[in-house]
Amino acid sequence: MDHRGAFFDFVVECLFCLLFEGTSPHYARRGGCALFKDDFQGDRPASNTREFAARSGDDADPSFAVVREALAWRGPHRSILSRTVELPGARSQEATFDVLECGHGRESVLVVAWDTKSRTATLIREFHPGPLEFQYGAVAGGVEPTKHKSPLEAAQFELEEEARLVGGTWVPLLESPQGTGLASLGHDKYSTERFFPWLVLDAQRVEEESARPRDDEECIGVVDGLTAIELRRLLRSGTMNCPSSTAVFLALDRLDEMGLLTRP
Where are the alpha helices (DSSP H) in 58-183? Predict the structure, then answer.
């Protein structure tokens, strides 16, 4: 999966919306496919089913029908789906994509831990087999239906397993557009995975020998005492993976709103 390519596609679409903003009161058009300006303006009321289904992630968008879907490849932890989708208004009425799916399901969690006394964060530094390097990141893991009762419980389990922290006050970092509950963040343009990001305040350290065990393949170090300034430096350094970077950005924004970024 080329995350840089997906990010570049997103930036190009945004630029087209800005460049052609004056051509229509409702949308700009790129390659025959509508890019709704409402999607970039959260204060506008709902105008159609497409917009809200796409934003919420709760339902399949009725405007983009899945024509065919088949398993192309299955590994121990991930699979590749061959998914053919009908694209109304596009030059090609059907397009086939390789879509990544995780073995545990389509829901995952991200956790940023913050100590309100020291005003510092705890992250992890973990080996990433894709780029073959260690990268910083938030605590992360999958929501497993056979193991977890909810995304929150999955986040609590992962925090103990990876960062050796338990308890604390849990703050969701996303809200549904309708204000009805939790919202999740899509991992990538070509992935079915969605993340529930959390901020946890004042979690307590647990002893190594009594903590939940990590997976055998996980090579993780805990990095604590990170100030807001140091977090921003890490974000600019290219040494933090994309989902974690988003979670840290959201956490810094929420902490700023709560007045908890710097010491009084």
Answer: 151-158
Q: What length does the chain have?
A: 264
- Cβ pair 224, 232 in contact under 8 A: no
Residue carrying structure tokens 């929150």: 152
Phi-psi region at 163: left, alpha or beta (left = phi > 0; alpha = psi -120 to 50): alpha
Maximum CA extent, the chain:
63
3-state secondary structure of 61: coil
At 34, the pLDDT band (50, 70, 90 cuts) reads very low
Q: Are 194 and 176 a contacting pair, CB within 8 Å? A: no
Q: Rounded to the nearest 5 degrees, what angle is found at the Cα of 25, between the Cα atoms of 46 and 89?
A: 80
CA atoms of 161 and 247, how far apart (whole Å): 19
Across the range 109-124, mean pLDDT stands at 98
Could you give the angle at the alpha carbon of 12 between the alpha carbons of 29 and 107, nearest 5°? 100
Question: By the 8 A CB rule, do 197 and 246 touch?
Answer: yes
What's the mean pLDDT in 137-160?
A: 96
For residue 209, give the DSSP letter. Answer: G
| Whether the Cβ atoms of residue 144 and residue 154 lie closer than 8 Å to each other | yes
pTM: 0.75
Tokens describing residue 41: 């303006």
Per the CB < 8 A criterion, the answer to whether 252 and 261 are in contact is yes
Cα Rg of the chain, angstroms: 20
Characterize the bridge pairing of strands 165-166 and 139-142. Answer: unpaired
